[in-house]
Write a structure and sequence with these properties.
globular; alpha/beta; 7% strand; 411 residues; 18 helices; 6-stranded mixed sheet
Length: 411
Amino acid sequence: MKNCFLTWLLLLAWWPCTFAQPASPDQHYKFYKGSSALQDRIFYLFTLMEELPGLSRLMNSDSALCTLGQEYRQRVTGSVSKGDLTAPLQFSARTTGEVSKALIDLLLRHPKEMGRLLNEMRGSGVFQLYADKADTTLLSLAWKDAADGVNYILNAYTNGKGLRYPVIDSAAYYVASPAYRSMIQRVMEQAGKRKPGLFFRPSLDVALGLLELNHRDEAIRYEPLSAINEAAYKMVKQTDWSKYPYTAMLILGASPVATEPLSETGKSRCRTGAELYRKGMAPFIIVSGGHVRPVGTRYSEAVEMKKYLVNELKIPAAAVMADPYARHTTTNVRNAVRILWRSGIPVDKKMMCVSDIMHVAYVNSPMFTKRCKTELGYMPAADMEQSDLYFLSFLPDLRSLQVNVFDPLDP
C-alpha cells in the first residue's frame, strides 16, 4: 500500500498528455481568498479547488471524491466517540493515490475547467518545484504535498510527534494531558457540524482547528506583506538598478536569549548592514526573522530590526523591507527571494547577504547547501560568492516561491 502513490506517478510518465504549460510564475498574480487565511497560506491548492468558478461543483459530482468525502466526514464524528482522535483523518498512501487518479480522470474528461486550475497553480508560483512538469504530474504532486501537510499538522499537534523543529514549533499545551485531548475532541466536534464540502474538508478543518487551538497563526500575522512594506514597494518602481552593485541586502536575524525585543547580535548585524547601505552597495535592505525565541515571544526579529535601522541608525524607512516569518537561515534566504519577486525587484541580478563572520561562512558552506536541500528540497540561492568577511552575494532562485507543507508556521 505504501508504494501506491509512487506507482501511480510512474504510470503518469507513460500517460499521453498534451497539457504541459510554461514554468514561469506571474509576478502580478492575484491570489484567490477562501474562508480561512491560514488555509490560503498553507493549502492554496484547496483554496483554488473551492474558489474557482464551477470547480467545486465539478469535483463534488465525481463519485470517487464524493464517496471519500462522506467517509472522512463520518470519521470525524466516529473518532470523537471512540476516542481515536485524529489518526483516522490522516490521508493514507492508498487514499492519496486514489485521489490522484480521480483528479487526473477529471483533468482528462474536463480539460477546460481543470486546465484553469493548472494555469492558476503555475501562475501563483506556489507550486514552482513542479511547474516544469506535465499537468498530470504537477496536479498529483501538489495534491500529495497538501495531503502530507494535513497529516503533518494532525500528527504534530495531536501527538507531538513528527515535528521538524520541535523546540520552537511544538503545541502550546502538554499533548498527553486529558484537558488537551478534550480540546481536540471539541475541535473535531465543530468540524463535524460544518456544512459538507469537498473531499478534503473534514481533515483540513481539524488540522486548521489544531493550529488555531495552539495559537499557531504565525503564518498569517503580517499578511499582506505589501502593507508593512508599502513604502519600500513604491520606491522599487522608481529605482535605477544600474547605480548599484546589488539589488538588495538581506540582513539575517538573530534571536534574543531573554525577553529583550532585539538581541545584541541582531543590532550588530544591522550596524554592519547600515554601513554597507551608506556606501551605496544596494538600494534596499531586507531584514529577516520571525517569532522564534524565546518560545512564545511576542517580538518578531525582522520588525524589531527594522525599528532599530530606522529609529536608531537613521536608515530611510522606504529603504527597509521586513520578512517577519523566517525562523531559520534557510528560510531567511528563501523568504528574501520571495520578497524580491513579489515587490518587483529584478531577480536576474545578484543580491547581498549580510551577517557576522561565522554566520556568513556557514551560509557559504556545503553544510548550509545540504540543509537547504534536505529541508526545502532545493537551494534558494545560486552562484553564491563570498565577497567580504561580512557579506556574500547570490542570484535568487524562483523555486523559493514553493510552499513548504512541513513548515506550517512559515510555509
